[in-house]
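Design request, C-alpha coordinates follow.
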Protein backbone atom coordinates (compact mmCIF):
# COMPACT_ATOMS: atom_id res chain seq x y z
CA UNK A 1 0.00 0.00 0.00
CA UNK A 2 1.44 3.37 -1.04
CA UNK A 3 -0.61 5.80 1.05
CA UNK A 4 -2.97 5.71 4.00
CA UNK A 5 -5.00 8.93 4.07
CA UNK A 6 -6.21 9.52 7.62
CA UNK A 7 -9.09 11.92 8.20
CA UNK A 8 -10.43 12.89 11.62
CA UNK A 9 -13.97 14.21 11.23
CA UNK A 10 -16.33 16.11 13.49
CA UNK A 11 -19.61 17.42 12.12
CA UNK A 12 -18.51 18.57 8.65
CA UNK A 13 -20.38 15.99 6.55
CA UNK A 14 -20.59 17.96 3.29
CA UNK A 15 -16.93 18.98 3.33
CA UNK A 16 -15.93 15.42 4.24
CA UNK A 17 -17.83 14.18 1.18
CA UNK A 18 -15.86 16.57 -1.05
CA UNK A 19 -12.59 15.55 0.62
CA UNK A 20 -13.18 11.82 0.06
CA UNK A 21 -14.35 12.41 -3.52
CA UNK A 22 -11.13 14.33 -4.28
CA UNK A 23 -9.04 11.40 -3.01
CA UNK A 24 -10.93 8.98 -5.23
CA UNK A 25 -10.66 11.30 -8.21
CA UNK A 26 -6.96 12.17 -7.92
CA UNK A 27 -5.38 8.99 -6.55
CA UNK A 28 -3.99 8.14 -10.01
CA UNK A 29 -2.18 4.82 -10.23
CA UNK A 30 -1.21 4.86 -6.55
CA UNK A 31 -2.62 2.33 -4.11
CA UNK A 32 -4.46 4.44 -1.55
CA UNK A 33 -6.62 3.59 1.44
CA UNK A 34 -8.81 6.22 3.08
CA UNK A 35 -9.47 5.96 6.81
CA UNK A 36 -12.08 8.15 8.50
CA UNK A 37 -12.24 8.44 12.26
CA UNK A 38 -15.54 10.06 13.14
CA UNK A 39 -15.46 11.80 16.52
CA UNK A 40 -19.11 11.20 17.47
CA UNK A 41 -20.55 13.54 14.84
CA UNK A 42 -24.25 14.31 15.06
CA UNK A 43 -24.72 15.52 11.47
CA UNK A 44 -24.85 12.12 9.79
CA UNK A 45 -21.21 12.13 8.70
CA UNK A 46 -20.58 8.49 9.54
CA UNK A 47 -23.76 7.31 7.80
CA UNK A 48 -22.82 9.30 4.71
CA UNK A 49 -19.39 7.65 4.55
CA UNK A 50 -20.88 4.21 5.08
CA UNK A 51 -23.46 4.73 2.34
CA UNK A 52 -21.51 6.70 -0.31
CA UNK A 53 -17.89 5.56 0.16
CA UNK A 54 -18.06 1.85 0.78
CA UNK A 55 -14.31 1.36 0.26
CA UNK A 56 -13.40 3.75 3.08
CA UNK A 57 -12.40 2.33 6.46
CA UNK A 58 -14.69 4.00 8.98
CA UNK A 59 -14.15 4.10 12.73
CA UNK A 60 -16.97 5.56 14.82
CA UNK A 61 -15.82 6.97 18.15
CA UNK A 62 -18.29 6.99 21.07
CA UNK A 63 -17.24 10.56 21.95
CA UNK A 64 -15.03 13.32 20.60
CA UNK A 65 -11.52 12.05 21.31
CA UNK A 66 -9.75 15.07 19.86
CA UNK A 67 -7.26 15.16 17.01
CA UNK A 68 -4.28 13.30 18.50
CA UNK A 69 -6.12 10.31 19.98
CA UNK A 70 -8.32 9.86 16.92
CA UNK A 71 -5.32 9.88 14.57
CA UNK A 72 -3.55 7.33 16.73
CA UNK A 73 -6.54 5.02 16.50
CA UNK A 74 -6.27 5.12 12.71
CA UNK A 75 -2.48 4.74 12.75
CA UNK A 76 -2.84 1.41 14.50
CA UNK A 77 -4.80 0.12 11.47
CA UNK A 78 -3.09 1.96 8.60
CA UNK A 79 -1.20 -0.11 6.01
CA UNK A 80 0.49 2.57 3.90
CA UNK A 81 4.23 3.19 3.70
CA UNK A 82 3.25 6.88 3.68
CA UNK A 83 0.68 8.42 6.01
CA UNK A 84 -1.23 11.48 4.87
CA UNK A 85 -3.06 13.26 7.69
CA UNK A 86 -5.74 15.31 5.98
CA UNK A 87 -8.46 17.50 7.43
CA UNK A 88 -12.03 16.82 6.30
CA UNK A 89 -12.27 20.45 5.13
CA UNK A 90 -9.40 19.93 2.67
CA UNK A 91 -9.47 18.76 -0.95
CA UNK A 92 -6.74 17.30 -3.12
CA UNK A 93 -5.81 18.73 -6.51
CA UNK A 94 -4.63 16.85 -9.63
CA UNK A 95 -1.16 15.35 -9.22
CA UNK A 96 -0.76 16.21 -5.53
CA UNK A 97 -0.42 12.63 -4.30
CA UNK A 98 1.95 11.64 -7.12
CA UNK A 99 4.15 14.68 -6.40
CA UNK A 100 4.36 13.87 -2.70
CA UNK A 101 5.21 10.20 -3.25
CA UNK A 102 7.74 10.92 -6.01
CA UNK A 103 9.59 13.44 -3.87
CA UNK A 104 9.65 11.26 -0.77
CA UNK A 105 10.80 8.22 -2.75
CA UNK A 106 13.70 10.28 -4.11
CA UNK A 107 14.65 11.88 -0.75
CA UNK A 108 14.91 9.26 2.00
CA UNK A 109 16.39 11.85 4.39
CA UNK A 110 13.06 13.70 4.43
CA UNK A 111 10.54 12.37 6.96
CA UNK A 112 7.69 14.80 6.37
CA UNK A 113 6.42 16.69 3.34
CA UNK A 114 4.23 19.77 3.52
CA UNK A 115 2.06 20.45 0.48
CA UNK A 116 1.21 24.00 -0.56
CA UNK A 117 -2.04 24.78 1.26
CA UNK A 118 -4.32 27.11 -0.66
CA UNK A 119 -7.50 29.04 0.01
CA UNK A 120 -10.52 28.09 -2.12
CA UNK A 121 -9.63 30.96 -4.49
CA UNK A 122 -6.21 29.42 -5.20
CA UNK A 123 -4.11 31.86 -3.18
CA UNK A 124 -1.50 30.59 -0.74
CA UNK A 125 -2.93 30.24 2.77
CA UNK A 126 -0.77 32.53 4.88
CA UNK A 127 0.29 31.05 8.21
CA UNK A 128 0.14 27.46 6.98
CA UNK A 129 3.94 27.30 7.31
CA UNK A 130 5.39 28.62 10.56
CA UNK A 131 8.66 28.53 12.42
CA UNK A 132 9.24 26.96 15.82
CA UNK A 133 7.15 28.75 18.49
CA UNK A 134 9.02 30.75 21.11
CA UNK A 135 7.95 31.95 24.53
CA UNK A 136 7.83 35.57 23.37
CA UNK A 137 5.73 34.85 20.28
CA UNK A 138 3.19 32.81 22.23
CA UNK A 139 2.92 35.39 25.01
CA UNK A 140 2.15 38.06 22.44
CA UNK A 141 -0.54 35.85 20.91
CA UNK A 142 -2.10 34.84 24.24
CA UNK A 143 -2.31 38.46 25.45
CA UNK A 144 -3.80 39.56 22.10
CA UNK A 145 -0.86 41.89 21.49
CA UNK A 146 -0.31 40.26 18.12
CA UNK A 147 -3.21 42.38 16.82
CA UNK A 148 -1.65 45.59 18.11
CA UNK A 149 1.98 44.77 17.34
CA UNK A 150 1.95 42.52 14.26
CA UNK A 151 5.38 43.70 13.08
CA UNK A 152 7.24 42.71 16.25
CA UNK A 153 10.20 40.53 15.28
CA UNK A 154 9.08 37.53 17.36
CA UNK A 155 5.75 37.40 15.54
CA UNK A 156 7.20 38.11 12.11
CA UNK A 157 9.62 35.25 12.60
CA UNK A 158 7.02 32.84 14.01
CA UNK A 159 4.51 33.52 11.24
CA UNK A 160 7.30 33.25 8.66
CA UNK A 161 6.67 36.70 7.16
CA UNK A 162 9.52 36.21 4.68
CA UNK A 163 8.28 32.81 3.46
CA UNK A 164 8.31 32.27 -0.29
CA UNK A 165 5.46 29.84 -1.11
CA UNK A 166 6.76 29.30 -4.65
CA UNK A 167 10.07 27.77 -3.51
CA UNK A 168 10.77 24.23 -2.32
CA UNK A 169 12.50 24.47 1.06
CA UNK A 170 13.11 22.88 4.45
CA UNK A 171 10.78 24.12 7.20
CA UNK A 172 10.27 23.74 10.95
CA UNK A 173 6.76 22.37 11.01
CA UNK A 174 3.76 21.30 8.96
CA UNK A 175 0.20 22.56 9.33
CA UNK A 176 -2.01 19.84 10.77
CA UNK A 177 -4.55 20.15 7.96
CA UNK A 178 -2.28 18.33 5.47
CA UNK A 179 0.79 16.40 6.69
CA UNK A 180 2.54 13.71 4.63
CA UNK A 181 4.67 11.42 6.81
CA UNK A 182 7.03 8.58 6.05
CA UNK A 183 5.77 5.60 8.06
CA UNK A 184 9.25 4.71 9.24
CA UNK A 185 9.64 8.19 10.76
CA UNK A 186 6.62 7.66 13.01
CA UNK A 187 7.91 4.21 13.92
CA UNK A 188 11.05 6.00 15.13
CA UNK A 189 9.68 9.04 16.98
CA UNK A 190 6.31 7.67 18.06
CA UNK A 191 2.73 8.72 17.40
CA UNK A 192 0.83 11.83 18.45
CA UNK A 193 1.03 12.87 22.09
CA UNK A 194 -2.52 12.25 23.35
CA UNK A 195 -2.21 14.88 26.08
CA UNK A 196 -3.01 17.35 23.30
CA UNK A 197 -6.74 17.40 22.55
CA UNK A 198 -6.32 19.85 19.69
CA UNK A 199 -3.61 22.27 18.55
CA UNK A 200 0.15 21.90 18.97
CA UNK A 201 0.08 18.12 18.53
CA UNK A 202 1.54 18.51 15.03
CA UNK A 203 4.07 21.09 16.29
CA UNK A 204 5.20 18.60 18.92
CA UNK A 205 5.41 15.76 16.41
CA UNK A 206 7.41 17.82 13.91
CA UNK A 207 9.80 18.89 16.66
CA UNK A 208 10.40 15.26 17.57
CA UNK A 209 11.02 14.45 13.91
CA UNK A 210 13.64 17.20 13.61
CA UNK A 211 15.27 16.13 16.88
CA UNK A 212 15.66 12.65 15.39
CA UNK A 213 17.81 14.17 12.63
CA UNK A 214 15.21 13.88 9.84
CA UNK A 215 14.04 16.76 7.66
CA UNK A 216 10.69 18.40 6.86
CA UNK A 217 10.25 19.82 3.37
CA UNK A 218 7.67 22.17 1.85
CA UNK A 219 6.62 21.18 -1.68
CA UNK A 220 4.83 23.88 -3.72
CA UNK A 221 4.16 21.43 -6.55
CA UNK A 222 1.74 19.46 -4.35
CA UNK A 223 -1.37 21.58 -3.80
CA UNK A 224 -4.18 21.10 -1.28
CA UNK A 225 -7.24 23.33 -0.96
CA UNK A 226 -8.18 24.09 2.63
CA UNK A 227 -11.49 25.64 3.65
CA UNK A 228 -10.12 26.26 7.13
CA UNK A 229 -11.32 25.61 10.67
CA UNK A 230 -14.72 24.23 9.70
CA UNK A 231 -15.03 21.82 12.62
CA UNK A 232 -13.94 24.00 15.50
CA UNK A 233 -15.75 27.04 14.18
CA UNK A 234 -18.74 25.34 15.79
CA UNK A 235 -17.30 25.58 19.31
CA UNK A 236 -17.85 28.63 21.51
CA UNK A 237 -15.00 31.13 21.89
CA UNK A 238 -14.10 30.40 25.51
CA UNK A 239 -14.06 26.62 24.93
CA UNK A 240 -11.70 27.02 21.98
CA UNK A 241 -9.43 29.33 23.93
CA UNK A 242 -9.26 26.98 26.93
CA UNK A 243 -8.28 24.09 24.67
CA UNK A 244 -5.62 26.21 22.95
CA UNK A 245 -4.23 27.44 26.29
CA UNK A 246 -3.93 23.88 27.62
CA UNK A 247 -2.13 22.81 24.47
CA UNK A 248 0.41 25.62 24.39
CA UNK A 249 1.17 25.20 28.11
CA UNK A 250 1.67 21.45 27.70
CA UNK A 251 3.91 21.95 24.67
CA UNK A 252 6.25 24.35 26.49
CA UNK A 253 6.24 22.26 29.66
CA UNK A 254 7.20 19.19 27.64
CA UNK A 255 10.01 20.80 25.66
CA UNK A 256 11.22 23.74 27.78
CA UNK A 257 10.32 22.95 31.38
CA UNK A 258 8.00 24.17 34.08
CA UNK A 259 9.22 27.80 34.17
CA UNK A 260 8.03 28.47 30.63
CA UNK A 261 4.79 26.60 31.32
CA UNK A 262 4.04 28.64 34.46
CA UNK A 263 4.56 31.94 32.63
CA UNK A 264 2.21 30.87 29.85
CA UNK A 265 -0.36 29.51 32.33
CA UNK A 266 -0.55 32.84 34.17
CA UNK A 267 -0.71 34.75 30.88
CA UNK A 268 -3.57 32.52 29.72
CA UNK A 269 -5.53 33.26 32.89
CA UNK A 270 -5.10 37.00 32.35
CA UNK A 271 -6.22 36.57 28.74
CA UNK A 272 -9.24 34.50 29.79
CA UNK A 273 -10.27 37.17 32.28
CA UNK A 274 -9.99 39.76 29.51
CA UNK A 275 -12.30 37.69 27.31
CA UNK A 276 -14.87 37.22 30.09
CA UNK A 277 -14.89 40.94 30.90
CA UNK A 278 -15.03 41.97 27.26
CA UNK A 279 -17.92 39.73 26.19
CA UNK A 280 -20.75 41.69 27.92
CA UNK A 281 -19.35 44.96 26.54
CA UNK A 282 -19.15 43.49 23.03
CA UNK A 283 -22.72 42.20 23.31
CA UNK A 284 -24.05 45.62 24.42
CA UNK A 285 -22.23 47.28 21.54
CA UNK A 286 -23.70 44.80 19.05
CA UNK A 287 -27.24 45.37 20.40
CA UNK A 288 -27.12 49.13 19.88
Amino acid sequence: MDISVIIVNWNVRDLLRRCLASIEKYRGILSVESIVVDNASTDGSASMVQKEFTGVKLFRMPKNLGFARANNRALAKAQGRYLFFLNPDAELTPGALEALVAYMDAHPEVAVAAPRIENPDGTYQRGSIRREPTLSSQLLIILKLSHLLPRVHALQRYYYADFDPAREQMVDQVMGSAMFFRRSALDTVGYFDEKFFLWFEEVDLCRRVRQSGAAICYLPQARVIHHGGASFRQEVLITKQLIWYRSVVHYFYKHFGWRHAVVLWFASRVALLMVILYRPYAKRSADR
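Comment from the thread starter after seeing the answer: thanks! The two ends are 60 Å apart (CA to CA).
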